[in-house]
Automatic annotation (TrEMBL):
Main subcellular location: membrane
Native source organism of the sequence: Trichuris trichiura (Whipworm)
Record membrane topology: Peripheral membrane protein
Domain named Sec23/Sec24 beta-sandwich: residues: 561-644
Cellular compartments annotated: Cytoplasmic vesicle, COPII-coated vesicle membrane; Endoplasmic reticulum membrane; Golgi apparatus membrane
Protein name: Protein transport protein Sec24A
GO aspect biological process, one term: COPII-coated vesicle cargo loading
Length: 902
């Protein structure tokens, strides 16, 4: 049913909690709120009323035929076996029983996480109806070539497989486009293609834009079926609707959306389960025009993403005020970095703009070998309370340490100015981090909120104390040890936090070993955020200083959602298999996030349980949360995709970037839950082998000297090779254990845009700028594309590397860097001089354009060809061979040999 190497275990960490009477969060309204009961699937008599234009589920159209396809070879035992791999190769597919399962799935104690809603305050502006375009022509190549006229992919051919959509990777070596890869356009079959309503691809995206209509088709296609969901992303246009009635299906509880069908003016048919529901009278009112009439004019029908203000019956309690706790590491290792002064300055700058209302609470703690609390009272000097007993501490009174921010803003500012000086002479080498987080949780357990913790040292005393278990001699080993937590303290504490709607965000500010594999559990299971600033020091690492400063600007001001619950609903026949990200899984299709932020996404692996009868499949992600101003909201995203039994159409509709994003999450999840690094690497290679073999069998190709794949998946082997060389999964190179684990944590939560840049950065030649508006073409990540006379910009998402060749001309040095020669360029510079010439202006404008399109900071770092930091650039040239890895050409040759019959 799934490619070997893709399927995590069905018994994923799930703990179903019974509802708590009077618990926190959302609950369904009592009684029949939306529609009177009707028989499922029965269309009521509508008199002489004419059906409305279709906006969703339709019947009466011929179903897609299943072409006769030969049996597909695969690694599973239920179909013919693929040829035995050559044991002498570097990458050898692993036995059929291995896959992306968690070898040691830890059992957690029962917990009753609340099903609370959560956050987001945007201006309530109604967006105009979307522009309607004529449907694209039928019968164009199934490969989905890009239209130069309208910039979209042309329609799929449902009955014809044309081989011009097939690529021989051994012949077509230059497959990278000169512009960033665009997401494929979903082309729905008639009549669904009439409205042009679609979800933004960076919010909800499926690995297959043509969904298999049966489990057997999915098994033959040998591709993963899943979603990348970015539910709380900042959206420039989002309709926020305040209504007394939120219309939902009475059977499956899906929210009404653009893909439902109106058989008449009084009813609508659910696009997930097929039930016919009655429309409430309020639904005939159009808030945009303030008139009554056609229900298809409603915002719910015209927007694939919409946000509702939840009515009172969805509330189980009055929303508590926003509450923020800051826990500072003040051990000697942390004080030496200088981070405390930088952060306090930033917090002072943005204090009045923290998300919240007049009741917002704030609290400060510090920790070294003792716990430090601070009592802030209006008109009084702060009191410093020290608890030296970190194993059995006495918690201060909440009212003493939780300060009302807006009433005591002046006192808080004065405290932040003096806090760094208080610990300037700190000399404690020990850290009771676990005790500090536990105390912070207890302080706000009654209200919930966010704990922001800074860590620069190994927690070695108090609750959850750890020992250094990294062996520097094993960093380049084939099998990496200690990728899982050494104890359950932080996981169990995280479950308590989740039950009380407390999330912990973790900022790691050191290259010292802090055991990220263990302490990260406190964020992983609470919906928290994890950031890492290696070698952070305000004096000698300007790149990380700039990144930390800009990240704090974003972190302190970005919106936040409290008491969040995310549910993913699927069309009949589909089911959620596994979630990947930072959350607590409450049931098979529901995850709990104590906090939700706009910079984190998650992956969802789907499975097919029954054959699909409809020509389209729909998936809906609904996020319920509380805003920082105490308002309940429900944000709903819906996607509709065509279905097919044709293996060729499934491959031609694959979204390679989403496939890679899901594959990376699955591999990271496997490693962090007890699986071996080598098994994860082999599973990724198997994914490529399986997909290419399945497509060759679909084409009935017996030319074993070729590596054929669909046009849409032409970059799949290249991206997998880049993933194998990523710091999270690389072997044969020295990677610190904490760095490796952080990268795995990052892959599990990265939005798709950042993840793709992190795996395969964009490389631009910027030495040839001739005008300010020029956009340089993308280059392949190979040193053969790098000229010693040139200057290149590498965009990794997290950093911008400006690489300067040693033979660069003096003219370029003068125009861009304002120096007379290459020798005078200062390596590590984080800002270009502002000069009034075409090249300097064009480079700075291009860098500003890249940064303006993303919320997180991307600091610039200048790297000279002969500088020690050159490795930061060259290690990202993933198409080249190294001592322990294959080049892209060698990787393709390996794939070819593995596909040959033995």
């Amino acid at each position: 049913m799934y490619p070997p190497g893709f399927c995590p275990p069905k018994n994923q960490l799930v703990r179903t909690a019974p509802p708590v009477p009077g618990g926190i969060g959302f609950r369904p309204p009592n009684g029949p709120v939306y529609n009177p009961p009707m028989g499922p699937g029965t269309i009521p008599q509508a008199g002489t009323a004419q059906p409305l234009p279709p906006s969703g589920l339709m019947n009466g159209y011929p179903e897609i035929g299943v072409p006769g396809l030969p049996a597909v070879k695969s690694f599973s035992t239920s179909v013919p076996q693929m040829p035995t791999p050559n044991p002498g190769m570097v990458f050898s597919p692993f036995p059929p029983t291995q896959n992306f399962l968690s070898a040691n799935t830890a059992q957690l104690p029962p917990v009753e996480p609340p099903c609370g809603p959560s956050v987001a305050s945007l201006p309530r502006v109604q967006i105009p109806p979307p522009t309607s375009y004529p449907p694209p022509p039928i019968g164009i190549s199934a490969a989905g070539y890009k239209s130069s006229k309208r910039g979209i992919f042309k329609t799929l051919s449902y009955r014809l497989v044309l081989k011009r959509g097939t690529v021989d990777l051994l012949k077509e070596r230059h497959i990278l486009p000169s512009t960033p890869v665009e997401p494929p356009t979903v082309v729905l079959p008639p009549p669904y293609d009439s409205s042009e309503i679609s979800i933004q691809p960076d919010v909800l995206r499926c690995t297959l834009t043509t969904v298999p209509s049966s489990a057997m088709a999915l098994k033959k296609a040998r591709l993963p079926l899943g979603l990348i969901v970015h539910p709380y992303k900042d959206l420039k246009k989002l309709t926020i609707l305040s209504t007394s009635v939120i219309v939902r299906c009475r059977t499956c509880r899906v929210y009404i959306n653009p893909y439902v069908y109106f058989p008449d003016q009084q009813h609508w048919r659910c696009n997930l389960c097929g039930r016919v529901n009655t429309l409430p009278e309020d639904f005939y009112y159009d808030p945009a025009t303030q008139t009554f009439g056609d229900p298809t004019r409603r915002p719910e029908i015209r927007n694939a993403s919409i946000e509702f203000v939840a009515p009172a019956e969805y509330m189980a309690r009055n929303p508590p005020p926003a509450c923020y706790v800051f826990v500072f590491d003040v051990s000697i290792a942390a004080i030496e970095t200088g981070y405390l002064k930088v952060f306090c300055e930033k917090l002072c700058e943005h204090l009045s703009a923290l998300p919240g209302d007049e009741d917002t609470l704030i609290c400060f703690m510090a920790v070294d070998s003792a716990l430090h609390f601070f009592s802030l009272k209006s008109g009084c000097r702060p009191k410093h309370l020290v608890m030296p007993e970190v194993d059995d501490y006495i918690l201060p009174c909440q009212t003493d340490v939780l300060a009302p921010l807006h009433k005591m803003e002046k006192e808080v500012r004065e405290f932040l100015k003096t806090l760094p000086e208080l610990f300037d002479n700190g000399n404690s080498p020990h850290l009771a981090f676990g005790s500090a987080i536990s105390a912070a949780h207890q302080l706000i357990a009654s209200t919930g909120g966010r704990v922001t913790a800074f860590l620069a040292n190994l927690p070695d005393i108090g609750q959850g104390c750890l020992q250094n278990r990294e062996d520097p001699n094993m960093r380049a080993a084939k099998e990496v040890k200690h990728m899982t937590a050494v104890c359950d303290f932080y996981k169990l504490l995280a479950l308590d936090c989740t039950a009380n709607q407390v999330a912990v965000d973790l900022f790691i500010l050191s290259d010292r070993f802090v055991d990220v594999a263990t302490v990260a559990d406190i964020s992983k299971y609470t919906g928290g955020y994890i950031a890492h600033y290696p070698s952070f020091n305000i004096c000698n690492n300007p790149t990380e200083l700039v990144r930390f400063t800009e990240d704090m600007n974003r972190y302190l001001l970005r919106k936040i959602g409290f008491e969040a619950v995310l549910r993913v609903r699927c069309s009949a026949g589909f089911a959620v298999h596994t979630f990947f990200g930072n959350h607590f899984v409450r049931s098979t299709d529901v995850v709990v996030l104590a906090n939700v932020n706009p910079d984190s996404a998650m992956g969802v692996l789907l499975e097919i349980e029954d054959s699909i009868d409809c020509r389209v499949a729909c998936f809906q992600a609904a996020l319920l949360y509380t805003t920082s101003h105490g308002e309940r909201r429900i944000r709903v995203h819906t996607i509709c995709l065509p279905t097919s039994e044709s293996i060729a159409e499934i491959h031609n509709g694959a979204d390679v970037q989403t496939v890679i994003a899901l594959l990376a999450r699955m591999a990271a999840d496997r490693c962090m839950n007890g699986g071996s690094l080598q098994a994860a690497r082999e599973a990724m290679v198997n994914a490529v082998l399986d997909s290419i073999y399945a497509y060759n069998m679909c084409l009935n190709s017996k030319q074993f000297g070729r590596v054929l794949c669909s046009w849409s998946l032409r970059l799949f082997p290249l991206y997998v090779l880049a993933l194998l060389k990523h710091k999270a999964f690389a072997h044969g190179t020295s990677v610190k254990l904490d760095h490796r684990i952080f990268e795995m944590c990052n892959l599990r939560t990265m939005p798709l845009f950042y993840l793709m840049l992190d795996i395969y950065p964009n490389l631009y030649p910027i030495h040839s700028f001739s005008n300010e508006d020029e956009i340089p073409p993308l280059l392949s990540l190979s040193f053969e594309k790098v000229d010693r006379h040139g200057i290149y910009l590498m965009d990794t998402g997290r950093y911008l590397f400006l690489y300067v060749g040693q033979a660069v001309s003096d003219t370029l040095c003068q125009n861009i860097f304002n120096v007379t020669s290459y020798k005078e360029i200062v390596a590590g510079l984080v800002k270009l001089p502002e000069l009034e010439n075409v090249q300097n202006v064009a480079v700075r404008k291009f860098i500003d354009q890249l940064r303006s399109a993303r919320p997180l900071a991307s600091p610039l770092r200048i790297i000279k060809e002969d500088s020690p930091s050159r490795e930061l650039f060259t290690t990202r040239l993933v198409e080249d061979r190294t001592d322990s890895t294959l080049s892209y050409t060698e990787f393709l040759n390996h794939i070819q040999k593995e596909l040959q019959p033995k």
